[in-house]
Amino acid sequence: MTTSDHRKVLKQIGKKPGKLAKFQKHNVPKERSCGIATKKCRRCGRTRAHIDKYGMDLCRQCFREVATEIGFKKYY
Fold this sequence. Notes:
β1 (50-51) and β2 (58-59) form a beta hairpin. 39% of the residues lie in helices and 5% in strands. The chain is elongated. The N and C termini lie far apart (42 Å). It folds into 2 domains: 1-30, no CATH class; 34-76, CATH 4.10.830.10. It is mainly alpha-helical. The chain has a two-stranded antiparallel ribbon. The protein has helices at 5-12, 17-27, 60-70, and strands at residues 50-51, 58-59.
C-alpha cells in the first residue's frame, strides 16, 4: 500500500470510529527512522534515486530539470 493510498480510505470510513481505528492500526504506514522511505524528493516526492549531497533533497529526474537554474554546468 502506498502512502497516498491509505488517505483515500480514511475519508470514506471517517464517519465510523470503530472501523477507522481498526484500519489505522493495521494499514497506515508507520513513521520510519531509517531506510529508503525517509528521504523524499522535495519537488515530486519520489523515494528512489535521491540526491542528498549539498542538502538538495532532489531525485535525479528533478535534478536534471533544475540543474542549470541552480548553477550546475554540464561538462563534456
